[in-house]
Amino acid sequence: MVSAALNGRRAVQAVVIGGSAGSVSALGVVLPGLPADFPPVLIVVHVLPSSPSLLPAVFASRCAMRVREAESFEAIERGSVYFAPADYHLLVERDRRCSLSIEPPVHFSRPSIDVLFESAADAYGAGLVGVVLTGASSDGTQGLLAVHRAGGQAIVQDPDTAEVAIMPRAALQATPSAIVVPVSRIVAELLSLVAQS
Question: Which whole-number Å values give the CA distances from 120 to 51, 59, 99, in the listed order?
Fold first, then answer.
């Protein structure tokens, strides 16, 4: 396993998480383990465009952090989890507000993990942590690389423990320096990065 936080790393200001097939179960392990005052977490999960997302309701009662569906122009605040709405790209603006877009799908997906990660990397730079979970596409690969190139930290669910390994394997091919851990260790890595940054 790659070592966690590096000495002198910029303070963690936000975390972005992306996943597809199997990621709801993975998030059920990660999100309840984060404390109420944790930096903001923004999430893209591939859901059917025709289906209203029930994820905020599913997780709200299980988490110490506030859980909501992201809204355009909403300020991104510590202690909050923001889920991308179905059929909208979720972006982070330079002033650290949420933005929603109906631009064309990326990797056949809207919301797109790449779109969230790349915009968040522009906004937070080295203060960002990107996490790629289980999934069945290559969405998130370029986004995680953008996080790494901006000086942020990359985490990938161990493909051997993922329900579907395609997404984490693709992310690791592009960003081989990422921390690789089973989903059960992701909370510990996030807490370590925040504590040591």
Answer: 26, 23, 11
- Check: CB of residue 168 under 8 Å from CB of residue 133: yes
Cα atoms found within 13 Å of the Cα of residue 154, Cβ hemisphere only? 28
Please say whether the beta carbons of 54 and 167 come within 8 A: no
DSSP string of 62-100, one letter each residue: T-SSEEEE--TTPBP-TTEEEEPPTT-EEEE-TTSBEEE
Q: Which residues are catalytic?
A: 20, 46, 139
Among 48-62, 115-129, 134-148, which stretch is predicted with the lowest mean pLDDT? 48-62
Alpha helices (runs of H) in 100-140, residue ranges in sequence order: 113-124
What is the band of 149 on the pLDDT scale with cuts at 50, 70, 90? Answer: very high
